[in-house]
Amino acid sequence: MRFVLTGEQREFARSLDALLRAADTPGVLRAWAAGDHGPGRALWRRLGDAGVFALAVPEAYGGVGPLPVEAAVACVELGRYAVPGPVAETLAAGVLLAGAGGAAAKEWLPGIASGAAMLSLRLPGHGPYALDADAADAVFTVDGDGLRRAPGPGELSVSADPARRLFRPDPGGEPVAGGRAVEAASRAAGDWASFATAALALGCGEELLRATVAYVRQRRQFGVPVGSFQAVKHRLADTLLGLEFARPLLYGAAVELTEELSGGRAGTGSPEPGAGVGSGTGPAEGPPGSGLGTGRGAGPLGAGSRTGPGMGSLGAGAAVAAAKAAAGEAGYAAARTALQLHGAIGYTEELDLAWWLRRARPLRDAWGTPSACRARVLAG
């Protein structure tokens, strides 16, 4: 099965690449880790203007979503540039609040869609921490069927990545919503957080591999580039294979989430060669300049596409878990390869790549460790 992005989706990725290439994300990362959130919030607002956070917010609240495929496209690009802040958490908060409804949805969802609001959250079954709670405008927590706004960021915990600050939210707080709607919205938000983190991990791994290939081409031993050594070629090839095998799982999960949102499948036959997969439910147009919009009736990964046997049999939750396990492991393997081939300079903070090296393992384990994700896949 071959997954193919539409021309609009590819243009969206190119526009984000251009935006982030000009943003000096290493400098933003260093400032964020030091507690200066100004540059990061400025970048966040530009990403909001590009339509990134609107992808998880329904049209009724000023968004264009939910659009899982476009969200995957965006998060891969953000992962490639190691954009700091609670990206996956804010997208998941959009899903959580939209599902819970009520006054909090009306208050926060338009701000999420525009990039004016940065949110973090803690959900049951996903650990005690809320990412970057000190920088977030609000932190939401779910306990059972109760949704609350935490009264404060809570206690800071040590993280392997200084630009991913983990907090234990203060207990209690203002009740926001309750009941079965919260339970269902919490499960959906957990899937979105895991899905977005998988895309961030894939993008992080891609950048680690790109930088490592560039380095071994110019580093020389015995008068030749070390990239010409057979052992180095094999290591890089294994890393590339891991990333490339994770990519269809990520977009397969996006298709499953799209099908879940549309309430059914989009066909039963095998896809034609080169066809995309799934049935489109997204709006015909996105925010100005965003490059979004799949067109009514278009498939999420290409016009006139269909689903076939295979990926469609997993179900959304298991498909997300499979993508998270594969992308997380592939990104972490890329970090290990990068560290081995860069040698001791990989440990130095002066090397920009060190920020990507530190990020790969936390992304692997956040919102579902590989073992937990595999257990979910096996459980169906």
Describe, in plain words, how this protein is organized in 3D.
- The chain is α+β, with helices and mostly antiparallel strands.
- It is 52% helix and 8% strand.
- The radius of gyration is 20 Å and the shape is globular.
- The two termini are 21 Å apart.
- Residues 264-298 and 303-312 have low confidence and may be disordered.
Tell me the radius of gyration. Answer: 20 Å
- Find the count of extended strands (DSSP E, 2+ residues): 9
Report the sheet-strand fraction. 5-15%
Tell me the strand order in the biggest sheet.
Answer: 1-3-4-7
The computed structural class is alpha+beta
Low-confidence residue ranges? 264-298, 303-312
Average pLDDT works out at 87
Number of helical stretches of at least 4 residues: 11
N- and C-termini, Cα separation: 21 Å
What order do the SSEs take from the amino end to the carboxyl end, as H and E? HHHHHHEEEEEEEHEEHHHH
| Helical proportion, percent range | 40-55%
How can the largest sheet be summarized?
A: 4 strands, mixed
Approximate shape: globular
